[in-house]
Amino acid sequence: MSTSTITRKRRSADLAKLDRQIAQARAILRELRDTLEDLDDRRELAKAKKRNGSKPGTSWETVKKELGLKL
After folding, report:
1. How far apart are CA 9 and CA 4, in angstroms?
2. Rounded to whole angstroms, how far apart are CA atoms 10 and 36?
3. Do the Cβ atoms of 64 and 70 come closer than 8 Å?
4. Going residue by residue through the chain (71 aa), what tens digit of pLDDT does each one get?
5. Contact at 8 Å (CB) between 71 and 64?
6. Calculated CA dihedral for residues 62, 63, 69, 71, nearest 10 degrees
7. Domain residue ranges of the chain, discontinuous segments joined by +
8. Between the CA of residue 70 and those of 6, 63, 65, what are the distances in Å?
9. CA 46, CA 42: separation in Å to the nearest integer?
């Protein structure tokens, strides 16, 4: 086997490894983004609960009527 053939195979293996690392990083970033969105939702919910204090909520029956749902 020639040196250039070995070099090409090594580059191919390096590129494949790099592709796997990029795919893993993307998956981690997606998971992190989802976690941050969940935390942001929880923070907004906590703010709304604090803002509304002891005000009564809307009943499920009322919500279904307003949305035209028949569940």
Report:
1. 9
2. 39
3. yes
4. 667 777 888 899 999 999 999 999 999 999 999 999 999 999 999 999 999 998 988 999 999 999 999 86
5. yes
6. -80
7. 3-54
8. 68, 11, 8
9. 6
